[in-house]
Design goal:
16 helices; 79% helix; 338 residues; globular
Length: 338
């Protein structure tokens, strides 16, 4: 009875400890969202840069616990809720050929990451982090992978670098890829597939796709969501490989957010989530991820980001270019889409 009576007090104390850090991370997320909507730049990038300006709050003081909670727990909740954007019907509508092509592109991109990392003298953690992010869904994949990779002293810094790199490259691609695909004389269907298969972040895929046409935008969005839907598969593969390799660090368990992601996809696919609730969950997912990015930004410094070296940049650029070249070849030479 005594332990039970202490539970509400403990919860109140925990909430009180977390509130300042969560509040500042959420405030930064709101500021980043406002700037993104008014100036058209990626919200993740704004959240990260503004968060870095408040690094001192994550070092000592009342905000430390809340910032750590935001960068870890809120992050995982945001990734889990990404499942509400996906239905199995959307994926099967693409056809077997397109699905297999996307699977092949993902495998090639991750393999390229490991090869490039070896060339530039980087470790397997960074190769997996960047390769998975470029292959799957940009910043969201970076955050999810960072949650299952055994941590070391460079993981947070490399995660933040990956978020900045893939977000920046996605923004450049959003502008250049529609021009490139138009110059190649591709149809709207082909351009939509390529945009969805090669641009890293969902928002930039939507922007690039609908800048070509409504048809291209719809196809690009579905292809991109197929990549997002494969995120739990990648995480399960990573966990299996780490558990079978004693030298890789701690043996990770299946994270609850991966199970939640799969469950939400299943519920959404069978129409068990009302449309109003689905919209709320989509919005919640976006806010949780931006808040988590803000908190991660608060936990790093600009100096740490500038110490990564040119090899980091080279790896992400190579992964991006290989993905673009392979996908374009599949469409123009193999003709996987009409």
């Amino acid at each position: 009875m005594l332990s039970r009576s202490l539970e509400p007090a403990a919860l109140t104390r925990t909430a009180r400890d977390l509130a300042p850090g969560v509040a500042i991370a959420l405030t930064i997320a709101a500021a980043a969202t406002f700037l993104s909507e008014h100036y058209g730049a990626p919200v993740m990038l704004f959240a990260l840069l503004i968060g870095m300006a408040f690094h001192f709050l994550a070092v000592e003081g009342r905000c430390v616990e809340g910032v750590a909670f935001s960068s870890r727990t809120l992050l995982r909740a945001g990734v889990a809720l990404l499942g509400v954007r996906i239905t199995l019907a959307d994926i099967t509508a693409l056809g077997l050929g397109s699905v297999l092509a996307v699977l092949g592109l993902i495998a090639l991109t991750i393999a390229t990451g490991f090869a490039a990392a070896r060339f530039f003298g980087r470790k397997w953690r960074f190769a997996l982090l960047t390769g998975g992010s470029v292959a799957i869904c940009g910043a969201s994949a970076a955050l999810a992978l960072a949650a299952v990779i055994p941590p070391n002293d460079k993981l947070e810094r490399n995660t933040l670098f990956t978020v900045v790199a893939v977000t920046t490259l996605s923004t450049v691609a959003m502008i250049l890829y529609p021009i490139l695909f138009g110059a190649l004389g591709l149809s709207d269907v082909q351009a939509g597939f390529l945009i969805g298969a090669t641009i890293h972040d969902v928002a930039q895929v939507v922007g690039a796709g609908y800048s070509v046409s409504d048809e291209a935008g719809e196809i690009a969005t579905i292809v991109k969501l197929l990549r997002v839907a494969l995120l739990p598969v990648l995480l399960l593969v990573v966990i299996a490989c780490l558990r079978s390799n004693p030298g890789a660090g701690a043996r990770p368990k299946l994270p609850g957010f991966v199970i939640a992601f799969a469950a939400i996809v299943a519920l959404n696919s069978f129409g068990l989530i009302p449309s109003v609730v689905a919209e709320l969950l989509r919005a919640a997912s976006g806010w949780l991820l931006v808040t988590a990015i803000a908190a991660l930004g608060m936990k790093t410094t600009l100096k740490a980001m500038t110490e990564v070296g040119g090899g980091h940049v080279g790896i992400v650029v190579i992964e991006t270019l290989v993905l673009l070249a392979a996908a374009t070849g599949l469409v123009t030479w193999v003709g996987i889409v009409g």
